[in-house]
Model the fold of this input.
Amino acid sequence: MQLSRRAEAIQESPIRKLAPLATAARARGMKIYNLNIGQPDVPTPPEFLQAVAGFTDPVLAYGPSDGLPELRQAMSEYFRRYAIEIEPREILITTGGSEAILFAFNAVADEGQEIIIPEPFYTNYNGYAEMANLKVIPVRTRAEDGFHLPPDGALEKAVTPRTRAMLICSPNNPTGTVLSWDEMERLAAFARRHDLFLIADEVYKEFTYDGARHRSVLELPGLEERVIVVDSISKRFSACGARVGAVISRNRSLMAAILKFGQARLCPPTLEQLGAIAAYRLPETYFDSVREEYQRRRDVMFDGLTKDPGIVLRKPAGAFYMIVKMAGVADSDDFARFLLEDFNLDGETVMVAPAGGFYATPGAGTDEVRMAYVLEAAKIERAMEVFLAGLARYRARS
Amino acid sequence: MQLSRRAEAIQESPIRKLAPLATAARARGMKIYNLNIGQPDVPTPPEFLQAVAGFTDPVLAYGPSDGLPELRQAMSEYFRRYAIEIEPREILITTGGSEAILFAFNAVADEGQEIIIPEPFYTNYNGYAEMANLKVIPVRTRAEDGFHLPPDGALEKAVTPRTRAMLICSPNNPTGTVLSWDEMERLAAFARRHDLFLIADEVYKEFTYDGARHRSVLELPGLEERVIVVDSISKRFSACGARVGAVISRNRSLMAAILKFGQARLCPPTLEQLGAIAAYRLPETYFDSVREEYQRRRDVMFDGLTKDPGIVLRKPAGAFYMIVKMAGVADSDDFARFLLEDFNLDGETVMVAPAGGFYATPGAGTDEVRMAYVLEAAKIERAMEVFLAGLARYRARS
Done:
């Protein structure tokens, strides 16, 4: 039986594909530091699970297609902390940030149309572009520039008559880069100049360091009709398994269209929304210790990696990832496999995500890996020693 | 800002669009019997919520993209009750039956290709066809035939070089029709003849009456590579708000492709899967009282409606819906509005779903409404009196 072209074309998860090798290494008694996946170890707030357990209706019925009103209200109040006025009707609750991306793609573009995305980018955007039959047009960013936006000329070159939107992610997965306000204003002008939507994945909003505050595209004046925010509680409240996200826009006809997509899938999960309501009602100080902890981890990882003069890395200001460019590595898939199969330091090794999968341009990122700092600082310190030893061994072998 | 063509094209829910009129009627003090939406009143099994509340991990982490292994195992054992051998790896857990449909559509067909569906059909298939850029080709079924399949000639006429699959739903929403084994064998031959996938929505599997047993397309011999089942716990365990479904197939390359779509959205909701595991472990007898209750309701609704000689209705054998064809109604949208706005019997009225939205053929179903028997029998009995009085009044007015 012939499957669809898109079923053949869609990429296997580059983050998950090394899993069998890790399983085999563990079976040989190896200790692995898992830096390959963005699963935080921060506890989910107990208030979340208490709220879920508090559900006592006799029937777990369909909820509203746009989400529970109390959750939309709680999110509206959460945005007010950042001096961002968003009404509950400008928020539609989705099944994870993933569905928010799918809805945004479907609402702004038809088959064959194009979305510009700075690369490297979160690999699952590809999957949703395939499902929506859209073409991703990458704009290259580089380790040497800290993965900040290239000059306007590079953006202009990516535009065609089929371009419908630009998608950014800040704080960024996989680079950790936080766009400056200047960069956001450049993007606003770019969107206006070419009549594009500006879709922003802001799921790492709270994760910014060194006292920097993330500024949302929702703060760009005069861009209300163009801006769509993709949001999620997965990282914000360490509730990745909950699958509660949101799509947010002040463009009313866009939100009306997205509600129709929402009706087609009936509603997002009810119980996990109850947990999300409780989480959004936590005091703002909840994030202080989380932020402090991640900043410490970032510093340990950065200091460890930059001991190697062959590594290109600008200190990222947010999220909990880094893209690490390495001299002496031409095929980071091979290098990541080497770490799991042919290397150990006193019985320990490191699992990283080869960065090629985060690029749309063939051959890009093959000298890079992504690391997530989702382990406690002491473990990261040791993991960096193991990683650098592995890198040295790999270079010596080549 | 121009939205996408599909955002404009996607249909508003015909089931939910009368909601504002119902709200207004209630505000006037009217009592409304809600027969318009398939929200069962059967309690969710307490075991479901107990299992959810039993979650004590510190972190609500990402689960596997294909679902929790224990749930896939529990579903495999559930199928064994029906003498259907399905391995856990032939089951992928989805976020509701909705996502199962989306994944199945995406896996078998590309933009512009066609899926044949007997109409009237579950309206949300349209939404997913829009999102997947597929064309729905309806094959008409009729009240006079109890909405059973038309002769082979009608099926043949629907086939084009772009046809990739046929989608059936049995027991059916919105008609309540249960396909016979003969019909299923005809479909199997049809799928073979034209090299099509056969997608079957079997979410109402347990809801069959008069001692009839639903037979799954998974039981069709020699059709293993073509058959895809779309499943859900929403109706089975009265857990519509949980959003736990599944896509099931013995076609290994199809399941591998669907896993890639699954990876793009990371995982289905974890807590609700824990509830589903507990529900699937309930003894088979759990369904006996549920089935008995729905059969009683169906009989009360059928007996009530067939008192009117101008109603065409064959007694449906499953699910909890009926499509009611009425002489003297030319525009059932107008009739449903009339019931909410201009009619009452001693302060009571009935809310039904106009059937036009369940048809892809323009103008079809305008003399029909869908009713769901999701109220207790005594209320349905009274609701039928109110409905028939409303119908008589509407006819007299025309």
Q: What stands out?
A: Chain A touches chain B through 81 residues (CB under 8 Å). The domain at 58-280 of chain A is CATH 3.40.640.10 (Aspartate Aminotransferase; domain 2). Residues 377-397 of chain A form the longest helix (21 residues).
